[in-house]
Amino acid sequence: MTKYFFSKKKSKFFPYIIAEIGVNHECSLKKAKKLIDLAALSGASSAKFQTYKAEKLASKHSPAYWDMKKEKTSSQYVLFKKYDKFDYYHYKELYKHCKKKKIEFSSTPFDEEAVDFLNPFLKFFKIASADINNLPLLKKVASKKKPVILSTGASNISEIKFAVNYLKKFGCKEIVIMHCILSYPTIDENANLDMISHLKKIFPNNIIGYSDHTLPNKNMINLVTANILGAQVIEKHFTNNKKKKGNDHFHSMDSSDLKEFFKSYKKIKQIRGKNKKEVIKCELQSRRYARRSIVISKDIKKGESIVKSFLTTKRPGTGLTPNLIDKIIGKKAKKNLKSDHVLKWSDIK
Asked: Which tens digits make up the pLDDT trace of 120-156?
């Protein structure tokens, strides 16, 4: 399951970050390229877009499902129509620009035609949460036999299992399952990041990721927490202006947010350290001097048998360790031993 996303070139300990530009370019090729530049400079692994035509995606009577205070358009069709102007030429240009900037180009197809013309440009496909039961689209994507990132917003386990098995049935071998809450924006109380742990348990053979719709916060704690819980692929909308009105700008991260995520991630990774309990180098001196040894509690004469009342335990831990005390009782002193002497094997017989 890890051939593409976590090859030797992509450390399994480092999250694969997808900067979801989506349609925040607002159909400007210049803006789209600028956003790619920012994503690449900020450390993202992939710059992702959305490929659709409004008439293939939504009926003219489709109601909004987002926060109307943030995006006032009440019709899905009307909103999608604003941003569906890119065609094959534009995506080819964006692919070439990503290649130049050494960042992976990706885009979510929302219809079968988009799957076909995007295919030459993609190393993997992304399936949006709302299409988890769109069998014609899943079958078309699977037929390309490339890795798939499957978002699972507003779905249950049985639906996810069905989609995963369906993708496998028609040729897909590598599937990343993304925890996602399909709510724009998702308030922190609804993020339910522990669902990542649940997905890891249910799908142990799949990479688990997280597609985030919460508002960016200080230290990007939501994304860092998702990674700690096991999300190895992280996707979040990306913009160069979070204050811009309309569409996905209001819940997107910007370049500063992404840099802050990496800063927090590296600090947390440093703090977490090894995943195996053992004595580490900085503890060796403490282990030696802060632990206790068996210590003589009163003067003992040469040849005298040692009884429990002759012994106590004190620091440092440079002598015989306290767990040996039962083996010392009954031994005889080889020489006169003074009170407060740290006992050694050479002192007894």
From this structure: 999 999 999 999 999 999 999 999 999 999 999 999 9
**pTM across the whole model:** 0.88
pLDDT of 152-201, one tens digit each? 999 999 999 999 999 999 999 999 999 999 999 999 999 999 999 999 99
The answer on 149 and 25 residing in a single domain is yes
Residue 309 CB neighbour total at 10 angstroms = 9
Q: Which distant-in-sequence residues (6+ apart) come within 8 Å of 156 by Cβ?
A: none
- Would you say the C-alpha torsion 39, 103, 128, 87 has a positive or negative sign? positive
Q: Is 343 left (phi over 0), alpha (psi -120 to 50) or beta?
A: beta
Report the b/e string of 68-95 with b at 16+ CB within 10 A: eebbebebbbebbbebbebeeebbeebb
One domain, residues 102 and 242 = yes
SS3 assignment for 61-93: CCECCCCCCCCCCCEHHHHHHHCCCCCHHHHHH
CATH code of residue 45: 3.20.20.70
Domain presence at residue 3: no
Spatial separation of the C-alpha atoms in residues 46 and 49, rounded to whole Å: 10
Enclosing domain of residue 305: 283-347
Sequence letter at residue 40 = A
Q: Does 88 lie in the same domain as 176?
A: yes
